[in-house]
Structure formats: structure tokens, C-alpha cells
Amino acid sequence: MAENVDIEIRGMSCASCVGRVERALGKLPGVIHAQVNLAMQKAAIEVEGGTPTAGLLDAIEAAGYQPVVESSDIPVTGMSCGSCVSRIERALGKLPGMVEVSVNLATQKAFVRYLPGAVSLSLIHHAIREAGYEPQAGDAPQQADSEDREGAQLRNRVVLAAVFTIPVVIIAMGKMIPALETLFSSLMPHRGWMGIEWLLTTPVLFYAGARFYRAGYAELRHANPGMNSLVMIGSSAAYFYSVAALLMPGFFPTGTAESYFEAAAVIVTLILLGRYFEHLAKGRTSEAIKKLLQLQAKTARVIRDGEAVEVPIEAVVPGDRLLARPGERIPVDGVVEDGHSYVDESMISGEPVPVAKQKDAEVVGGTINKNGALTFRATRVGADTLLSQIIRMVEAAQAEKPPIQQLADKIAGVFVPVVIAIALITFGVWFAVGPAPALSFAFVTTVSVLLIACPCAMGLATPTAIMVGTGKGAEMGVLFRKGAALETLAKMDTVVLDKTGTLTRGRPELTDFEAIDGHENEVLRLVAAVEAQSEHPIAEAIVRGARARGLELPAVSHFGAEPGYGIEADVAGHRLHVGADRYMNRLGIGLGKAEERAKALAEDAKSPLYAAVDGRLAAIIAVADPLKEGSAEAIAALKALGLEVAMLTGDNRATAEAIARQAGIQRVLAEVLPDQKAAEIRRLQSEGRRVAFVGDGINDAPALAQADVGIAIGTGTDIAIEAGDVVLMRGDLRGIVNATALSKRTHRTIIGNFVWAYGYNLALIPVAAGALYPFVGVLLNPMLAAAAMSFSSVFVLTNSLRLRRFTPDIDDASPMTRGEPQVGQVHHQA
Predict the structure, then answer these.
(1) 498 is annotated as an active-site residue
(2) Which residue out of 320, 333, 409, 498 is catalytically annotated?
(3) Any idea what DSSP says for residue 627?
């Protein structure tokens, strides 16, 4: 059957654009006809039924234009298991214009991407309701209120159910304990007690447990049974069997007109209690997001007409001048214009030592100003602030489904119908060949199978672990932009590191200054004065080294530079020449033994220079881009985890191998052009390797995207960060070790959850069906089945919460993480 799809398109400007889009769409399988209207900026496409919308969007993007797609996170209440997830995804997936649907049980959210011209949010909400669930407003305060109401309602229903269930259980015990049976018989006939049980059980099922009946009915109405259907069928079977036994005892075979009111009441009470415990545990899994949200300021002090006026944070715009008083939270990102203070940036770096801030320093929204007033100009506000970006990254990672969860949802989608079939077979077998009273045995085993098999634990196994793992990562300064990266990173066998800015600090530093003629500080002072006239990065490194020693630089005259050779100038009555060996040779200045020393420095990946004062060689200078603190330690730790570590760089091989030796890396891929980096990653992947690539620059973005897991250094460019799956906010390679260890721990937790969830069902369904009865004469009581099912879900949640106690393998808190400028040590010899 043909369907019509309308897609808004941005970027078209002429008839050739129209033709290009129509040709791109016309080539797709399933497209019957495509007509593009330039004036309306819209494509009307006729497709065969079932043609994926995502393919149409990819074709438009490939043609160079932008289809208009909207996305939304919709909180959904009423979900309890993996089959609920599958049901909502199927219901939404059938809507015309739906591009992507992902439902997360742990976060209780549905993420949708859709074509705004084809489907609306109201239609999406309607489809969710039709599936038997309730969509909620998506803003954080309303969602938090909704969660609080849900918790309070569950608690109240549990208390009410327990108050009515306890006396039902006591009455039921009277049938089994002789002393109680005698007492109860003297007070009232057996059928009278059954009547009281009926009165007490009815509000437990149909008021306290009404949620199971509403959701279960909706599931069955859509021919898509789930956990609520199992609870509804199981408890109703026990309840209505008992009502019939009370009102029409003669209808039943001798000995089978028994009461199971206590089973029905206890089933609902225990499952409600389990659901309440789940709610509490789920709240703890999302604590990372709640803590991040709490860091956001609600108001800001904006300077208007010379006065600091307190305004809502939403009213701040880029360019506003703001005041942050001591003890206040910095409201938005900005640059300091006036004042001096120390700012607690532990939310970014994890390092509790405050960072000094003065004119031209950057400040980050959400950090805390400690002891001085700062006036700064807003640069990023609202959703553009670093804190907002971090929150979005964590939320996106928690909402995304890794491959193992997608498989689990598919299994859960067919699991419940299979369980119902097993329950029917169980009833038939026991009723046909079971011992007397066969009806009672058939009833008990069938209800037990229905209750023991509820797939709650299966649906919670992965998303709860992902939520806790990504939240823990955020606390450690490791942001997982994609939840799947947690699973994928655990399977890596090769880590490829970019050199400049990743392994190294990314800027040259003065590493060696060896005075040959004269006092070292005096010679360095003269050399730095000359270099201060140059814009070359090496010159800047020498000047920084001199200033780090507190040296005053004298005035310079007659400055000159010869590209490729060096520079010269008059300083403090001396004529100075600074440059490479060829410059000294041209000037006729002998190098002597200094040449051997320079060769040794070059082998250590340092760039040697010479300084001459008044025509005599005065010093050997070495400048290098040194390893970041902790790089060698991180590489050793990665090797200890069983990973192969390689370095990928565009530098010449000699320099690359020297840096690799310092870092402890054996495999070096050197002299690789920027556009070849992704090709090198593909080559490693073709060898069967699972590759994680770590980089920080614009030229690293293709390699980050190509790798199985791209790890971006958070101190790098925005483009690299956007291309990465994982972001190290602290810029320290030791974060890779911690990220890898956390991912492995999370993966083990997920596997453990699945082993428990599936193993529990596979092991106990036969027991519930009565497989042990022929051997040991034992049947599983429906009440115990309900308790076991609830315990299974709580076990999975608590097992995931153990990830909150994860501790990093190595400490990556260093001066680098505090944003403090680093000065290379200057080694010298007299």
C-alpha cells in the first residue's frame, strides 16, 4: 500500500536544488514518486508501505540539504518491563513520519525523532496512551514532581495493601495451624472466615492493585500481553476461583473448593512493594543528573546602568556584564573583565583546589566563586554553557540503548506470550494427569508460572547499569556521549593515541638551557629579550621559561630575523645571535663539543638551538613539546589491562619515536597526514582489531568518528569533542584508564544482571510448573512466586547500584586538571 510522506527541507535556493533532491530521492528503493516544491521548501514523496523514513532523510542530506527533523524526550509512566518498552516502540514506530524511537525503562522516557509535518507531539502522546501508558510533560521540574507523586502513591498503596493483607494471611494460617483452626472454628464457621477474606482482599486487588488491571487490560486489548497482564491474570485467577468456591462450593469436585484469597492479596502486596523498591532504586540511579541540575544557577546579577540587578537566569544574553560575589555560583560561562578571586571548579576537574581567576580568565557556569568579587562578560548562556552540554551528554548516554539491550527488548517482546502458552500447557497437563484434586494442582501451578515469569528484571538489567555507569563517569570527569560506548569500550583491544595535545602538552616549552660562557640566568635574560621580539612558538617558550625564573628582560634594538636561520639584536651592550646550527656555521662560530650535546637532545625529541654573545658560543637551548604529566603512567596502566597502545602522528619519525620511547609506546604510526588518520584506523580495524582512538584537534575528528570508540580530550576543540563517543573533561590520559576500567566493570555488571534475570526465569519456570513434584512432592506456592519475582528485580537494581562504589584505578587529578598554567622545568649546567 502506498503512503505519502512530506518532508520540510532547508538549504534549497534554485531549480537545480529541486532537481538534485528529486533525483536523490527517486533512486531510493520503495520511492514511487518524489516532487519538491521550492517555494514551500518541502518534498512530497509517495512511497511503498514500510519504506523507512530514515533512508529518505539520509538521501536528502547526501544531496547537500537539511531535512527538518524534531526530537523530544517524553517521560512515560506505567512501564514495568521489557515488553512494555517493545510495545511503546512498536506503537510509535507505526506512526507516519517517525524517524527514530528509543524507549528506556530505567529513565521511564521515550526518545523520538520525527518529521514535524507528518506527525505531532499530541499524536505521539495519543499513541502512547493507546498502548496503555501515560505520557507526561517533559520539563525537569514537572518530571521531578511526577516522580515524587509516583513514589508517594506507591508508598500509600503498599501501606494500604499491607493493612488489609496481614489479617487475610492470619486467617489463612488458621487452616494450617491446629490451635488457630480450633479458635477460629469456635468463633465463626469456615465459610464466614472466607467471606471476611473476600471483603479484605477486594480493595487490595481492585484499589491498591488497580494499576495492574488498567495496564494489563490495555495490554490484552492490544493483543500484546506484558508483565501487568501476568500479574492481572495470576491474581484474578486466585481471587475469582476463591469467590466461586465461596459462593458455589457444589460446583467444584470434592476437596477442590478451597480459598486462595491470601495468595491473591499477598501477590499484589509483594509486587507493589517490589515496585516501590524499584522506584527508590531508580531514583538513585539518576542521581548524577540530579546533582548536575542542582549546579545550575537560578538567578544572575547583571550590571545594568552601573548597578548589579538580580534577574532570572533565562534573561541573561551573551555580552551581558555580570557580577559574581564571594560564595556565589557562577551563573553562565564568561571571561573575567575585572577582579581577582579563586573559583572552585571541582565539578569540571574533580580537583578540590580552587583556581585563581583574574582579567581575561575564563569562568564556567555552575562553579563556585570563593573569596573575591568578579565582573565578567557572558560568552555562553542557556543550553550553550559547558554545564548544559555536560547534562545533555549524560542524559543522551543514559537514554541510548547499547546492542545488548536492543537484543533484550526483542526477547522480552516475545517472552510473555510464550509464558502464557507455557501456563496453559501446565494447566492442561496437571488437570489431565495430575493427582486428586487435579483442579487445585492445575490452578496453583498455572498461577505460579504466570507470576514467576514476569520479565521485569530483564528490562532493567541494562538501562540501570548504564545510568549508574554514565553518572559515575561524569563524577570522574569522563563523559560518555553515547551509552553504547560503555559497552563497546569494554571490548577494545587497541588504543591509538594522537601525539600533539593528547600525549604531549600541545605547546613548546623550554626544557634545557645549558650555559657555556657566562652566568646562566644572565645569558637566558639576554636571549629571552631577543626572542620576545619574535612571534614564533619556540620564541614564546623561551620567554615563558625566563619569566618563570622571574627574570627582567632588557630593552632590545636593531632586531632582525632571517627565516630558516635565526634572529639577531643588540641587548644591554651585547650583540646576540640565536638560531640553528647552520646559522652559527654561517656566522663562523665554532660549535665544538656542543654539537654532540645537541645531537643527544634531538634524539630525545627536543629542538636544539644555539645562542652566541658578541660572536662567542654562549649557550645550548632545547625546546620541546613534553609529555603531559601522567601520560607514561596511563600507558603503562593500559598495557596492564591487556591493551595494545599505538601512537599516530603527522610528525617526522625520529621525533615521534623519541616521544614514544619516553611514553613507553612500541608501535608508532608517524608522518601521517591529517586526512590519512581515519584510513590508518580503518587499516587497524581490517586486521580484526577493535580500536579506540584518542585525539584533541580538528584534524582528529575523522579518526575519532572512524574508530570503534572515539575518545576526545575535553581541553581540545569543539569539533573533536562532538566527534568523540567519550570525552575526557580533565585532559589527562589517566582518564582513559579509568574510563576503560569503568566500562569493563559496567559490562560485567550488565552480564551479571542478565545471567541472573534469564537464569532466574529459566530455572524457576519449570519449578513453578511442578517439575519437582514427582521427585520431592513440592509445589511452588504462588505467594512465593510473587516474592521471588519482586526480589529478582530488586536484585538487578541493587547490583547496578554497586557501580556507585567504583573507585578509579589511578588518580588523574594533577595541576593540569586545575587549569593551572604549566612551566617546563629548565635544566642547565654551568
Answers:
(1) yes
(2) 498
(3) B
